Amino acid sequence: MPVVELSYGRLQKMTGRPKKEIAYMLPYLGLDIESEDGDAVRIEYSPNRPDYSTDYGVALSLQGMLGVKTGMAKLRIKKSTRFIRAKPAVSKVRPYVTGIAAVGGRINDAMIKQLMSMQEDLHMGLGRNRVKASVGIHDMDRIAFPITYGSATRSHRFVPLGSNEEMSVSDILSKTTVGQEYGYILGNGPRMPLLLDAADNTVSLPPVINAASTTVTTKTKNLFVEVTGLSKGVIENVLAVICVVLQSAGFSLESVGVSGVRNATPDLGPKKMAVTAELVNQMLGLHLSSQQIVSCLKKSRLDASVSKSSIECVIPPYRFDIFGPMDLVEEVALGYGIDNLEPALSPSQTIGSKDPGSVLLGAVSSVMAGLGYMEALNSSLSSAKILYENMGRDSSAMVSVLDSKSQEHTVLRDSILPGLLDCLSRNIHEPYPQRLFETGIVFGRNNTISESVHLCSVTSHDGATYTEIKSALQGAVSGVFGSTCATRTTSHHSMTAGRCAEIIIDGKSCGVIGEVSREVLENFKLREPVSAFEMQIDTDA
After folding, report:
1. Is residue 345 part of a domain?
2. 342 belongs to a structural domain
3. Residue 260: in which H helix or E strand, if any?
4. Which residue of 136, 229, 408, 432 could cross-link 235, Cys pair, CB 3.0 to 4.6 Å?
5. From edge to edge, which strands make up the β-sheet containing 202-205?
């Protein structure tokens, strides 16, 4: 979940309400307060509300919930003659472009920080790490319109943002940090997408870097924002968020027309959707009148009116998280006040009981804690580096996640041991011995994706041996299952040769135990020996 730092002072200025009232209301907007430090507050927000990436977007919602301003914040966009023309050459590389002009604003260091925060959150969220969409924010007074969105060879030269020297596109992609990080998006073709102004000055090399000449500073008065990407819908959603934030920040918006192959001037108008009072009351357990529902929706910064059989809602373009009537029910709940909803017991008379599998895992945790091991809880999502590269394993059968928002969470784990070794590597400065265990789901892939539950345990200190970890294994098997286990010598990619064995219970091989190899320890930068076991647990038995 994205985290952003806001200012209580700015929120107070925009809402006219005291800090205490604002702090109380933030969680009821779906925002989790991570920490507070004087005027600063760090909040975690849902990725489907990128307008919350700045003070301005949060203040807009606070105004509604606190009754300062209600109803939809309409985008007021004045028509202008500014234009972007897209050439056919970009249609196979990065086909879509759109933009907006924002004039008459006042920019200080705090606003620049807010704009950068919004830009990066849009890149990571809607933009899928700049692949689907990327944003360039420019000093518009340094640009001559119309702008051409075309392509250039890798030998094309300009001064990139943050540099004083002219560089070729090829050098930017290979030698700069941002080029090395995002250049792969453009592939290996001979021509790269480029925004050029009417004087043939480079504006941007999307999605990598802007030109230094259009850098935004505290002296900037007018902004030009361009968004490029692979999906027209996504770049227009990104633009809608930027528009409402800039308008809330005091800028006047002016249109930038778009033409060219598969491109058109963006439609930033609201959309309409209906919901019935019956559905709202049924879902929320309330008895609200249609007019009361309208009032709740307006507090959520939507427009609404009562028609014959339903409530007609008008939704601003930046609220693309609203897909259907159930989303409108949620907005009514927020406008009504989550703290005003009273919980009620279910009328069901059925008697519940603990899931047997959960009872078994609880017993495992109790026994392992009794043996002196501390429980860890890692995500089922990990990285290929931790799961395969550091473990010296073949990655051909890994289960990858599409469009992951984090490089650390790209692969479903098929073993718990790498995660525990990573935990140890993050705690090398803590006292030894360190003994950890974890129970959790791992994933395998044959013809389909399969799930199973594993128990893994590690012990790390100067005298960690096979004998010690086998003692823990025997204690766990005896304490949880009331059984005994046998071991049979084997080899394993992560274990030291001759110090590794299969775990056999009731004649079935169910895991591996041994001393972790020196190579694996070095990959995780571990200084002390580690012994470990990992075994499958049948929670359905």
Report:
1. no
2. no
3. strand 257-260
4. 229
5. 209-210, 202-205, 191-196, 147-153, 83-86, 257-260
Summarised one tens digit per residue, pLDDT across range 150-205 is 999 999 999 999 999 999 999 999 999 999 999 999 999 999 999 999 999 999 99
What amino acid is encoded at 125 in this protein? G
Mean pLDDT of the chain: 93
Coil vs helix vs strand at 507? coil
Phi first, then psi: give them for residue 284, nearest 5 degrees: -100, -10
List the helix and strand counts (H, then E) for the chain: 15, 29
Kindly report the three-state secondary structure assignment for every residue of 68-115: CCCCCCCCCEECCCCEEEECHHHCCCCCEEEEEEEECCCCCHHHHHHH
How many domains is the chain built from?
4
Output DSSP code: residue 517.
Answer: P
Measured CA to CA, the distance from residue 344 to residue 541 in angstroms comes to: 36
Residue 514 has pLDDT above 70, yes or no: yes
Query: From CA 487, how far away is CA 502, in angstroms rounded?
Result: 5
Q: Which domain holds residue 120?
A: 77-260
Q: What is the pTM of this model?
A: 0.67
Burial class (CB in 10 A: 0-12, 13-18, 19+), 281: middle
238/97 same-domain check:
yes
Confidence of residue 401 (pLDDT cuts 50, 70, 90): confident
Q: How far is CA 364 from CA 180, 370, 421, 440, 457, in A?
A: 46, 10, 20, 11, 11
Round to the nearest angstrom and report the end-to-end CA distance of the chain. 37
Q: Among 309, 337, 365, give the residue marking a domain's end.
A: 337
Using the structure block, give the residue that is written with the tokens 């420019």: 138
pLDDT tens-digit readout, 231-263: 999 999 999 999 999 999 999 999 999 999 889
CA 11 to chain centroid, in Å, comes to 24
